[in-house]
Amino acid sequence: MAYTACGNRTQIDYSWAAPLLERPIDADRKVRIICVGAGFSGIGSAIHMIEHIRDAEFQIYEAADDIGGVWHHNRYAGAACDIPSHSYQFSFCQNTQWSTFYAPGPEIHNYLKKVVDHYQLRKFIKLNHRVVGAIWSQENGKWTVKVQNLETGAETIDEADFVLYATGFLSNPKWPSITGELLDPFERLQKAM
Question: Which InterPro entries match (predicted)?
Answer without folding.
Answer: FAD-bind_Monooxygenase_sf, FAD/NAD-bd_sf
